Amino acid sequence: MGELRGAVAVVTGAGRGIGRAIAEELAGGGARVVVNYSRSKEPAEELVQKISSSGGEAVAIQGDVSDAGQAARLIERTVERFGRIDVLVNNAGINIDRTMKKMTPEDWDKVVQVDLNSCFYTVKAALPHFVENGGGKIINISSFVGQAGNFGQANYSAAKAGIIGFTKTAALELARYNVCVNAVCPGFIETDMFAGVPEEVQEKIKARIPLGRIGKPTEIARAVRYLIEDGDYITGQTLNVNGGVYM
Ligand code: NAD
User: Fold this and answer.
1) From the CB of 193, is ligand 1 less than 6 Å away?
2) For an engineered disulfide with 142, which of 41, 67, 183, 224 has Cβ 3.0 to 4.6 Å away?
3) 177 tagged catalytic
4) Ligand 1 centroid distance, CA of 151 (Å)
5) Ligand 1 within 6 A of 114 CB?
6) Ligand 1: which residue has its CA nearest to atom 32?
7) Is the CB of 17 under 6 A from ligand 1?
8) What is the pTM of this model?
9) 94: Cβ below 6 Å to ligand 1?
10) Predicted confidence pLDDT, tens digits, the chain (247 residues)
């Protein structure tokens, strides 16, 4: 593929943060973008408006991707609307942080369900369409925490590490269909997820980052675009966009 113009791209959890930046970046490159959201309709609709008013094409489609049926419906509705799917970006994610002493089995299950299981659900649903197209690109948003571990994030780090293993297996299984599957591992990025971190902890985090600053959502979006446009011979990889916080 390589060509973004006219490609149909689904971005999960695209109402805000990194997902929003990815949707804008891909739409800016001429892709027809599905802005998936779970609960917050307004920000998703507002983003669709913004993309449309700058000459792009986008549609907001509701669906909780942690539910297998809703994830499949999201893909179905995409194909109903645009006739195909070329790019799938699994971005939706949550965190419920506490040490294992306090973490409940429900905290564990919820994060694994949203962050990891959703990737299997969307990929499985999109697979027949990628095969029919003769190719495609799947990008799963993991985290450096899945590579390094992080205090108070047993559930999140396990889910994000799981994404890396899933990405490699999906890359192996889908290579014969010319589908490239890669993971992007962001470091600390300026979003609502990061804004929830107490200020003194934010300062300590910055001190740990060799490049000395928090990353921007657009920097993750550019990496995703690179894998779509220039990644025809890149599959099963993890692209670390983290300011050097994990090497
Ligand atoms: P965010 O909380 O700002 O955005 C996450 C989005 O996912 C929200 O729009 C939310 O509504 C949506 N979402 C949550 N559950 C969903 C579901 N079941 N179905 C559909 N949508 C759902 O977070 P963000 O910082 O933009 O993170 C985006 C991705 O990047 C996540 O996978 C996150 O784990 C990962 N990440 C973020 C950072 C960071 O520092 N912000 C670092 C590494 C990785």
Assistant:
1) yes
2) 183
3) no
4) 19
5) yes
6) 93
7) yes
8) 0.98
9) yes
10) 468 999 999 999 999 999 999 999 999 999 999 999 999 999 999 999 999 999 999 999 999 999 999 999 999 999 999 999 999 999 999 999 999 999 999 999 999 999 999 999 999 999 999 999 999 999 999 999 999 999 999 999 999 999 999 999 999 999 999 999 999 999 999 998 788 888 998 999 999 999 999 999 999 999 999 999 999 999 999 999 999 999 9
